[in-house]
Amino acid sequence: MKIQDIQAIKLLLASPKKIAIIPHRGPDGDAMGSTLALYHFLLKNNHQPTVIAPNDFPDFLAWLPGSETVRIFEKDTENCTTILQEAELIFTLDFNALHRVGDMEHTLAKLTAPFIMIDHHQKPDDYAAYTYSDTSFGSTCEMIYNFILFLDKKEDLDKTIATCIYTGILTDSGSFRFPKTTGNTHRIVAELIDLGAENTEIPVLLFDNSSYSRLQLLGRALQNMKVFKEHKTSYTSLTQNELDSFDYVKGDTEGIVNYGLSIKGIIFTAIFIENKDEKIIKISFRSQGGFDVNQFARDHFNGGGHINAAGGKSEVSMEETLKKFEDLVTKLKI
Ligand code: 5GP
Ligand code: MN
């Protein structure tokens, strides 16, 4: 982060302020971990922070300290709008473009308070007065840790903040496996554990918290999987009917996409999930190595993300979407 920006932010934070902190729509472990870590840090520094999520977060994140204070814009639009209009400073975390908050974009676009973006996605938009954007980081949470150090506030790190940061690093790194996991990531993680982050408890809360029906849904997704061996690609799909028949709740499909890469020789995979309410097929892409799914998602499915993990959407039927994907895959040279 630029020295001048750090100085300017220090000045902004020198007096108590009303501050809104915003994760992307469909908040994941990194989005919730980073916003709540920052929330606890700002609270400790006598500010009045509020985390406002565009829509609800999954149940497997509901144990995060402070999650009970998170406002949901979609459910509580009027109050959230007031809080946003009264905010003197706005942090947007773990996303690079305002449209990633969905309908809330229109409200954010009208605000006059300065924005601070902290994010690790490619091609950040320029809506923020201060932008800390760096794609070399595996998670926004790791950047929040640095951000607190930039502000010379290391002594403020405590068990609560460490727990939130640990969660985002863990989830966005695929449990410390993805390529952006560095020695420095592990040094930070070691410190978080020393601060009290429960490193054996947190993964249980996040990953060993499934319902029986969620496991059955996973089974269905695995059965639906198709493999294009010669193109090193696999994909699976879940229709709204399938989701309904396994009593789907938000969060149940989290992580399923990764199974597609666990097949020997497969380096590109996708999951297509129908959302009847939003009239879209939501897509997640994953890859191993040099195949750039961010570019693939941008080029073909109105999305984006990172080189090895991206998302997108389709507004045509599941059948047409899968046909389009298969046609693209059979032309791929990977
Ligand atoms: P996931 O597949 O886990 O939802 O998302 C993987 C990565 O791609 C995340 O970094 C997420 O922020 C990004 N991503 C997911 N969906 C979209 C999308 O529709 N548009 C863009 N630009 N990025 C997305
Ligand atoms: Mn992230």
- Quantity of strands, as a count: 12
Report the top-level CATH class of the largest domain.
Alpha Beta
Given as residue ranges, the uncertain stretches (5+ residues, pLDDT < 50) are: none
Strand portion, in percent? 15-25%
Counting structural domains, the number is: 2
Shape: globular
Give the class from helix and strand content and strand pairing: alpha/beta
End-to-end separation: 36 Å
| CATH homology-level superfamily of the largest domain | inorganic pyrophosphatase (n-terminal core)
| Overall mean pLDDT | 97
Biggest β-sheet, characterized? 6 strands, parallel
Structural description of this entry:
It is a single chain. The strands form two sheets. Strands 3-2-1-4-5-6 form a six-stranded parallel sheet, sandwiched between helices. It has twelve helices and twelve strands. The mean pLDDT is 97. It has two domains: 204 residues, inorganic pyrophosphatase (n-terminal core) (Alpha-Beta Complex), CATH 3.90.1640.10; 119 residues, Roll (Diaminopimelate Epimerase, Chain A, domain 1), CATH 3.10.310. Helix content is 38%, strand content 18%. A hairpin with a 4-residue loop joins β9 and β10. The chain has 334 residues and is an alpha/beta fold. The chain is globular, with a radius of gyration of 20 Å. The structure holds guanosine-5'-monophosphate (5GP) and manganese (II) ion.
Structure described in brief:
The protein is an alpha/beta fold and 334 residues long.
Throw out a few tags for this protein:
12 helices; Diaminopimelate Epimerase, Chain A, domain 1; binds manganese (II) ion; EC 3.1.3.7; 38% helix; six-stranded mixed sheet; 12 strands; binds guanosine-5'-monophosphate; 334 residues; alpha/beta
